[in-house]
Amino acid sequence: MKEYKKLYINGKWVPSHGTDTVDIVNPSTEEVFATVVLGDEEDVNLAVKAARQSFPSWSATSVEDRVILLTKISEALTARQTEIGDTIAMEMGMPAPWSGMIQAGLPIATFASFSTILANYSFETSMGSTQIVKEPIGVCGFITPWNYPLHQIVGKVAPALAAGCTMVLKPSQLAPLNAFILAEILHEVGVPPGVFNLVSGAGSKVGQAISTHPDIDMVSITGSTQSGIRVAQAGAETVKRTTLELGGKSANILLEDTDFPTAVAKGVSDCLLNSGQTCSALTRMIVPAARQEEVIAIAKTTAESLIVGGAFDAGVYIGPLVDKDQQDSVRGYIHKGIEEGATLVTGGPEQPANLAKGYFVKPTIFADVKPDMTIAREEIFGPVLCIIPYRNEEEAIEIANDSLYGLSGAVWSGDIERAKKVAKQMKTGQVFINGAGFDINAPFGGYKQSGNGRERSKYGLEEFLEIKAIMGHND
Ligand code: NAD
């Protein structure tokens, strides 16, 4: 059993002021394999002080130096890719080969991407006689979830470092070990003391201390909409810039002229990736009513072909959910779907017969889902897909947009121009046409209650910049 007793503050591993610890449980086996200390407000104060002190010198470093550093971090992550992938597979249950590729691979790509963005970014421009100068906002507080834990952390840390900001990170208490590896890497490659600080702990203590701290200029949280609202409310007291990357209930519209076998199979497997624990998962498949039977047949075959098992078992596509609470919550939604009259195509609330232990939920597909059913409205965050029939294109778009959320979306059509027209009418931060792949360089973020602000791309960098107008600079 590995014990993580220290926090990373001001370039050193130091004992926490908090005395409580949290058990890190392998959700495939239900066994505790590590413990992590839970920091407190005093730890946050020290971390913020270190970040504040290091800000003048870090923000004055050259772009060239920061470009080199970002590249080095990407390389150091690459050297530990398998270890990071396996660690995250142990913490939150994504099957190890997928975890290595996605959970460890995306952070590598993100640091490399920000290295390029930074190298090409203009921090000073002119607007007539006024000079526009973009400056790092200052000390940032980051609060992150467990589902793509390092990807979410790096979506904040990489642009913040690029911009010249300093920071305090509180990772999820369910999957914090990857953050400790990142701290080791940042230390090794020479990120100066105080620029990056790690304080593990509970949202109610460390997260709350970060979001209310008067000396933090900006808070960025990725998490549920409920937590995002609390952080935004707390941050408002000191007028912090707050960026929010929150929940989703994304729609996948299949127009009647699409290639159904391809669209349905991809829609099902993408939705079930990471056991459905993806904020941008396309969990509502919106299909022509006249084609629903055909869709159901393909969806059932696809879901039933995917192997469910432990994160380190061979050939597994669907691992366990992160913990017992999540398993119970998802099973609750499956019961609710049945009660509300949706047709259960495959799956269900029972433990898979071959897996006595582990927080597994069977890949579950509902059809005949009505837009007002709970399973069509709330974020389930598990391996559950809702097939919702529509009568015409207008109604498909209306159903897609009838959500509190607006994170992602997709549209499939044999006619690309038609697909583009529909994409433009979807009220979401991203739209994928005909199964386009995830683009790490594209801005990511939500409309409506899916959040505020964007991560990745130059827009993600700009979240960390203040804009100063200097008038008369060339008089
Ligand atoms: P969560 O909201 O429970 O926790 C997220 C983080 O917020 C954790 O570190 C937690 O400790 C902290 N936190 C909770 N309450 C807080 C408070 N009052 N003050 C300060 N910090 C607090 O979310 P989760 O269960 O870890 O993650 C799943 C959720 O995250 C889902 O809703 C998912 O859609 C969302 N998510 C969104 C994105 C995105 O980019 N939009 C990406 C991944 C996950």
Overview in brief:
This protein is an alpha/beta fold and 475 residues long.
Topology diagram in text:
Layout (H helix, E strand, L loop, with lengths): L1 E3 L1 E4 L2 E4 L5 E6 L4 E7 L3 H19 L3 H17 L1 H12 L3 H8 L1 H15 L4 E4 L2 E7 L2 E5 L5 H15 L2 E5 L6 H13 L6 E3 L4 H10 L5 E5 L2 H12 L4 E5 L5 E4 L5 H13 L11 E5 L3 H14 L18 H16 L3 E4 L17 E4 L6 H4 L6 E7 L2 H9 L3 E2 L2 E4 L3 H10 L6 E2 L13 E2 L2 E2 L4 H6 L2 E7 L4
Parallel strand pairs: 1-5, 8-9, 8-11, 9-10, 11-12, 13-14, 13-19, 14-17, 16-17, 19-20
Antiparallel strand pairs: 2-3, 4-5, 6-7, 7-23, 12-22, 15-16, 18-21
Helix pairs in contact: 1-8, 2-5, 2-7, 3-4, 5-6, 8-9, 10-11
The structure holds nicotinamide-adenine-dinucleotide.
Structure, explained:
This protein is globular. It folds into 2 domains: 2-246 and 450-471, 3-Layer(aba) Sandwich (Aldehyde Dehydrogenase, Chain A, domain 1), CATH 3.40.605; 251-439, Aldehyde Dehydrogenase, Chain A, domain 2, CATH 3.40.309. It contains 16 helices and 23 strands. The chain is α/β, with parallel strands linked by helices. Nicotinamide-adenine-dinucleotide (NAD) binds at residues 143-148, 152, 170, 172-173, 202-204, 207-208, 211, 221-224, 227, 230-231, 245-248, 279, 379, 381, 407, 446, 450-451.
Tags for this entry?
single chain; six-stranded mixed β-sheet; Aldehyde Dehydrogenase, Chain A, domain 1; Aldehyde Dehydrogenase, Chain A, domain 2; 475 residues; 2 domains
